[in-house]
Design a protein that fits this description.
Elements lengths: L5 E5 L3 H11 L5 E5 L2 H10 L4 E5 L4 H14 L5 E5 L4 H10 L3 E4 L4 H19 L6 H14 L5 E4 L6 H10 L8 E5 L5 H9 E2 L11 E2 L1 H4 L4 E5 L6 H13 L1 E2 L8 E2 L3 E6 L3 H6 L5 H7 L2 E4 L10 H12 L6 E2 L1 H9 L5 H15 L4 E2 L5 E5 L6 E5 L13 H15 L3 H8 L3 H13 L7
Parallel strand pairs: 1-2, 1-3, 3-4, 4-5, 6-13, 6-14, 7-10, 10-13, 15-16
Antiparallel strand pairs: 8-9, 11-12, 17-18
Length: 445
């Protein structure tokens, strides 16, 4: 039996629903209508869906709340917003809240079908674990085995090696796959806020706590909580975290009742935690609580069999269905590179190549590497092969990208023609121009 992908439509206007049905039937997908966000969310908890399409017909706070709830329950589920010219600012706010994209009414049925297919394809790619190197296959096999248990997992490795990808893979292979997956970056949140975000708080617990709020532990209950870069956590908070893990219950800040927990913990670090323990920067008892099943991800330059499959994934992810390919010389350049920035750096290199490529075949001239100078403060961009173009590239790649795109828009008769000349989709061009406008840049009419 072939699985037929399912879409939820959230719309009150019957005429709009008819138009959507006509457009989305072109995709051959299974459609289910809901009248409001509450009804849609309840349906999402009962049945697996692949895409949400919602009309902006509720207040912004309600829409943002719906998107937040969906993201907590199904982090990768694409959400497409339908808007008109008057509500485009609200659609932009919805994108910031976690929606995937928006389309302006009245819409072209073929364009809508194309956007839906692109979002579904991108979501499928995000779910796939791309592995080809024997070392990665070993890691994946270990991850599958530990996923079947409730054991706490500690994933270590350099920045950009894909620690969060493996954490999500473990969750998706586990019996908790249909429960929440919550992630919190311990390095990105100030110490003063991290405790309240983890454990939650009651109204009046501190200045600014105008309403009670559950923490990440509560939100992840019966699912998985990823503590990303756990080594950055303050020692005092480590002690409180240890107690929550040991007791399997949490008490909100300012609260008096304990909340039972059934949460699978996955932690990541880019440091040597044993050394951190020896030097007194990480609690030994917490280390042993978290290090039940350690997984160490090797850097990309030690699993070179993954480089080309990952590059192909990024080509399709950044330009869905466009058919970009790497020629043999470009492939060799990727295989020879040191990849100090690991998978994250590879993704950046592929994005640059798509900007610079003059055809669907990416050559070595389109491969632009980023190299740190000896003082590790200035950045140089080097083309491969070594011979540099006559015109020196601006060190700021974002400025280069803006220059290329704005020039294409200014010198072509239409946005469609500009996108074709750039070798990107109109959707990507629209997104880039919106970002430039947001940065305060004047966009040619």
């Amino acid at each position: 039996m072939v699985y037929k992908k399912k879409i939820i439509l959230i719309a009150k206007d019957n005429n709009l629903v008819d138009s959507l049905l006509a457009a989305l039937l072109l995709t051959g997908l299974d459609l289910h209508r809901c009248n409001n966000n509450t009804e849609a969310f309840m349906e999402l908890t009962r049945t697996k869906y692949d895409l949400v399409v919602t009309d902006i017909n509720s207040n912004m706070e309600e829409l943002q709340g719906f998107i937040t709830n969906v993201r907590q329950f199904q982090p990768k589920l694409p959400i497409l917003i339908l808007t008109d010219y008057e509500t485009v600012p609200r659609a932009s706010a919805a994108i910031k809240a976690g929606a995937s994209d928006y389309v302006i009414k009245p819409f072209d049925p073929c364009l809508l079908a194309e956007m839906v297919n692109a979002l579904l394809q991108e979501a499928a790619q995000l779910t796939d674990l791309i592995i080809a190197d024997p070392k990665s296959m070993l890691i994946a096999n270990l991850a599958r085995k530990v996923a079947e248990s409730n054991a706490t997992v500690m994933i270590s490795g350099e920045s950009g090696t894909g620690k969060e990808v493996i954490a999500r893979f473990i969750h998706e292979c586990s019996p908790r796959a249909h429960k929440p997956f919550m992630a919190i970056n311990c390095a990105a949140i100030p110490e003063t806020m991290l405790e309240s975000i983890l454990f939650g708080y009651e109204k009046g617990a501190f200045t600014g706590a105008h309403a009670s709020k559950p923490g990440k532990f509560e939100q992840a209950n019966h699912g998985t909580l990823l503590l990303d870069e756990i080594s950055e956590m303050d020692l005092g908070l480590q002690a409180k975290l240890l107690r929550v893990i040991q007791e399997k219950e949490v008490e909100r800040l300012g609260g008096t009742r304990t909340i039972p927990l059934d949460v699978r913990i996955i932690a990541t670090t880019n440091r040597n935690l044993k050394l951190e323990v020896q030097q007194g920067r990480f609690r030994e008892d917490l280390f042993y609580r978290l290090n039940v099943f350690p997984l160490k991800l090797p850097p990309l330059n030690q699993r070179r069999g993954d480089i080309l499959p990952l590059a192909s994934k990024f080509l399709e992810m950044y330009q869905p269905g466009a058919g970009f390919m790497l020629d043999e010389a470009a492939q060799m350049e990727l295989l020879r590179h040191r990849w100090q920035g690991n998978v994250r750096e590879l993704g950046n290199v592929i994005q640059r190549a798509l900007i610079l490529a003059s055809s669907k075949t990416i050559g070595s001239d389109d491969i632009l590497f980023e190299e740190l100078n000896a003082d590790e403060t200035a950045v140089e961009f080097n083309f491969a092969p070594v011979q540099m173009p006559a015109k020196k590239l601006d060190n700021n790649l974002r400025s280069l990208e803006k220059e290329i795109i704005i020039n294409a828009v200014s010198t072509n008769n239409s946005r469609k023609e500009a996108a074709e000349k750039l070798g990107i989709s109109q959707r990507t061009l629209r997104y880039k121009l919106a970002q430039f406008r947001k940065d305060g840049m004047a966009i040619p009419a």
